[in-house]
Amino acid sequence: xxxxxxxxxxxxxxxxxxxxxxxxxxxxxxxxxxxxxxxxxxxxxxxxxxxxxxxxxxxxxxxxxxxxxxxxxxxxxxxxxxxxxxxxxxxxxxxxxxxxxxxxxxxxxxxxxxxxxxxxxxxxxxxxxxxxxxxxxxxxxxxxxxxxxxxxxxxxxxxxxxxxxxxxxxxxxxxxxxxxxxxxxxxxxxxxxxxxxxxxxxxxxxxxxxxxxxxxxxxxxxxxxxxxxxxxxxxxxxxxxxxxxxxxxxxxxxxxxxxxxxxxxxxxxxxxxxxxxxxxxxxxxxxxxxxxxxxxxxxxxxxxxxxxxxxxxxxxxxxxxxxxxxxxxxxxxxxxxxxxxxxxxxxxxxxxxxxxxxxxxxxxxxxxxxxxxxxxxxxxxxxxxxxxxxxxxxxxxxxxxxxxxxxxxxxxxxxxxxxxxxxxxxxxxxxxxxxxxxxxxxxxxxxxxxxxxxxxxxxxxxxxxxxxxxxxxxxxxxxxxxxxxxxxxxxxxxxxx
Length: 497
What we know:
By secondary structure, the protein is mainly α. It has helices at 16-20, 30-41, 53-85, 92-135, 142-159, 161-189, 194-197, 213-225, 244-271, 276-282, 287-296, 300-333, 352-373, 377-408, 421-439, 446-465, 475-494; strands at residues 2-6, 9-12, 471-472. The protein has a single domain (2-494), classed as Amino acid/polyamine transporter I. Helix 3 (53-85) crosses helix 10 (276-282), helix 3 (53-85) packs parallel to helix 14 (377-408) and helix 12 (300-333) packs across helix 13. The protein is globular. The chain starts with a strand and ends with a helix.
């Protein structure tokens, strides 16, 4: 029996055993959360970001990076306020559900799901490129690299939350160390030459600073996003944080500030060496490894450093597996996705079904693209654009949720309040929607972006036809309904008698 009904959705009755099979374990403190946020993104400094240089030039890319940084400041401060106020694993879905109802929650959660599942595929693609270069394996061997990475790091995530967070801290610190070695090497060897960063010939009427005008800036936005994409995943660890109200805002903001510094460092120093912007913008999938070759030569030491550099990609791959696992878990626990996806292990309390299923989807996306188009520069750009498609929709929905929560529930307990408030969220909302539009202007990536739009549409049809009749009173759902009830009571109490 399906009971009760709430509008056009139906909640199923479940017993206590349902949630006992879907429990998580608290472990993460502020530095674990910081490492989770930085680790999820750090691969963006190693590869992928450079693919936008060919559209914008160095100066245009810096402008794009500035715009994207504004977006993430507005987004992250908004999330820092919402996450301790709504301390559930659902994260973005929970924000959207409370602010905008069932459909708002589902669309936000679905977009975030698409973002993280595809992002693992992007990162593992670049990992394969690094390993192919280092070990000189043929391109046909790349699927083997991909499969091995998925198996190993899904396994670590299944092993337990303690192992996950301990490994995250270690691998994130190692990735930062690899970046610092590169920065120091470029500076002290005197290899940097600013003219190299400006070596893309401008179109007629444009300058070397903006060789392709402001259109180039617009087309570079998705690739600049790659320097920050996934920092917003931290609220997904809310039910595994030891002090979510205190530590979550600190972890988010510290993580973002770390990434701003590392992103600026790699963009400035990587483009100004070797073949310059012309080379790094269009002729390599692994700019940091190529940068190491310029600075330290092509001997065994450089290969060793390149192998260590894979740590940056591993950090992101490992932590984003964590993210999609919790996203699938929370949406499934509430009935938006099939419920069997949210079952956790009896002993380790990790969402193993969600972790494996998300990995299978990501791997199949890679295989499909590989066997239809092969491994080339267009492959990396296309799949990166696919991840950004889901991301900017999720960002827009979360910023809208923040604004609506401020308006609808002004008295809701907020342990942390964003100093940027509604204006910061509004700016981030506008930039995310603009980036979504610009994604459709890059013709070589269009088939991937259209594929993501179809995926999103199929998800909407599934929920409208089936999922909305199978919901469960999960913590996220109960919280949202309680807020509506409390707000109605407050309004009634304020009515003149």
